[in-house]
Amino acid sequence: MPNQLAAAASPYLLQHKDNPVDWWEWTPEAFAEARRSNRPILLSIGYAACHWCHVMAHESFEDAATAAVMNELFVNIKVDREERPEVDQIYMAALQQLGVQGGWPMTMFLDAEGAPFWGGTYFPKEARYGQPAFTDVLKTMANAYASGDPRIAQNRVALLERLRQKARPAGQVVIGTNELDDIAGRILGIMDTEHGGLQGSPKFPNTPFLDLLWRGWERTGRQKLRDAALHALDGMSEGGIYDHIGGGYSRYSVDDRWLVPHFEKMLYDNAQILDLLGLAYAETGAELFRARAIETVGWLQREMMTEGGAFAASLDADSEGHEGRYYVWTLKQVLDALGAQDAEFFARHYDIAPFGNWEGVSIPNRLKETERSGADEIRLAMLRDKLLAVREKRVPPGRDDKVLADWNGLMIAALVGAAPRIGRPEWVELAAGAFRFIAESMVKDGRLGHSWRAGRLVFPGLASDYAAMIGAALALAEATGERAYLDQAIAWQGMLETHHATEAGGYYLTAADAEGLILRPEATADDAVTNPQALIARNLVRLAILTGDEAYRARADRLFEALLPRAAPHLYSHAGLLNALDTRLRAREVVVIGVGAEADALTDAARRMPLVDVSVQRVSDPSALPDDHRARAKATSLTSGGDVGAPAAFVCGGGSCSLPVTEVNRLEELLRGR
């Protein structure tokens, strides 16, 4: 008989609806039941694409004997971390305060008010490798709680105090370009010079670090910083972490050379990587980066589109009960699909070995340097298409088809940014379609929701939703010139200030009227995604540029004053905030004034540049700019005699604008600082 998760919207929760565990969703009713029955709470947090979540579910949550212990001793709450990231953030911080590295599934023990007193991650059904059996953990925790063990109260008080201390601002600190250059140099020192990316394993894309290196190159001209970012992109784009048959990047590789992925695919990873691929191709012209961008968007359109035009959250790592089964090949399977001659050719280029390159099977990759002609690449593309058609007949991994506003916002902005650099203008309309769905289906009374599935909206939204969707609106405003996108960004920023701003100058993750938690999360560090407060800071600078309202820049300064003291002791975990500070210090704007082919050429050239934080505005007449815009005064003086004049671009930054630029080559030189 289904448990209470049968009424959930989340695909992850629905995976557990037939468990013998009497699961509750995270609701006030669950906590009321804990108080009524005088039982502690077992909180289990995971997500649909999590391999070890599936392992623990199969071993313990589907086991009737284990479930009986859970049901007798605890009120059991299951949470989808993607649907309720604020809950995940609070209890992950608590778990780390206990000295546990953290990860998913997360298993936390709480009192009836939600205060944590102990926790861990995956627990095996039977004791092994020094880990206790899950049922032993359950009985020990329940007995300690029921007996009033003083360690429970001590842990609870100590954890809550540590969590509150982490939220308190420290003294004022100053971080400028010298400090940004220093941290870029230090990150360069821990990059893997052989395989790319950070040294060691597992290897995550860690896009905020790559962004920081790229910005360091822009500031200093140090080629090694740029090359380290390109090397990482090259490694992950040739390795098994990239799906060479169907496109798209997995979440991370378990080894140090990008070969063996953890096969789940997340929307946010692919958004952040797509953004960097556009920069890399625009800078180098390397076909690898263009191809990976096009293939990844192809995967997005083929496998991640939802009915309304937005994008699904993730694809599972497992199919048919095995991690990666959908994506790996034996040599015989390739022979059967392609025939002997083509199979030998494909296997040589994609490391399909007789005995496999991982657990007896082969993960397609191009890590071995092999010379390939243009004709070879055309032939390989045709063979990949054949293998994709064969693969699509397999049992696919599960798709978590909920629409998350924050992850969609990241992908929308990435599509818009990559479109001119890769030469795919149609991606802007793809992005606009996703934006329309969220603006029409995930907004109530002008406020964003967080997650949508099957007509059900998780509301109110989080600061991360506003951060990403404001960024998406600004990207579309620049790309299309449509004022409605800018107006939407302004309105959402107002909602963010009303419902999420802290007195100190930062932003809470949750809204003021969201259901009660033991505290309101206000994290500043990055996780798999750049911290929303960093995204908000970048948005505020761009709003100041595009509207001419300097109050937005002042708000960004107040945000930095609040957050930098907390970030200073842990700069490596705050790459996103450091990148936002770089935006504040160096953001530039290109204003193109005029109509016709010459104005089009200047606009396209500015948008193609491999530089972060260059806003591009296109207006037909200087009167369309804000009254106090520096480019307006210069352009007006050139046309004061009534002569419209030739189209021209102005590069603005640091309180001034350049003289008019009428040639594409000169505009590119000016933007590169030559």
SSE topology:
Elements: H1 11-14, E1 23-24, H2 28-37, E2 41-46, H3 51-61, H4 64-73, E3 75-80, H5 85-97, E4 106-110, E5 116-120, H6 134-146, H7 150-167, H8 177-189, H9 207-220, H10 223-238, E6 252-253, E7 261-262, E8 265-266, H11 267-284, H12 287-304, E9 314-315, E10 318-319, E11 322-323, H13 331-338, H14 340-350, H15 374-391, E12 399-400, E13 403-404, H16 405-422, H17 426-441, E14 443-444, E15 447-448, E16 451-453, E17 456-458, H18 463-480, H19 483-500, H20 532-547, H21 551-567, H22 575-586, E18 588-593, H23 597-608, E19 614-619, H24 630-638, E20 648-653, E21 656-657, H25 664-671
Parallel strand pairs: 1-3, 2-3, 18-19
Antiparallel strand pairs: 2-4, 4-5, 6-7, 8-9, 9-12, 10-11, 13-16, 14-15, 16-17, 18-20, 20-21
Helix pairs in contact: 4-6, 5-7, 8-9, 9-10, 9-22, 11-12, 11-16, 13-14, 16-17, 16-18, 17-18, 18-19, 18-20, 20-21, 20-22, 23-25
Descriptive report:
- There is one protein chain.
- The chain is of the alpha+beta class.
- The protein is 50% helix and 10% strand.
- The chain is built from 25 helices and 21 strands.
- The strands form seven sheets. A five-stranded mixed beta sheet has the order 1-3-2-4-5, with helices on both faces. The chain has a four-stranded mixed beta sheet with strand order 19-18-20-21, with helices on both faces. The protein has a three-stranded antiparallel beta sheet with strand order 8-9-12.
- A hairpin with a 2-residue loop joins strand 20 and strand 21.
- Helix 4 packs parallel to helix 6 and helix 18 (463-480) runs parallel beside helix 20 (532-547).
- 51% of the residues are buried.
- The model has no long low-confidence stretch (mean pLDDT 93).
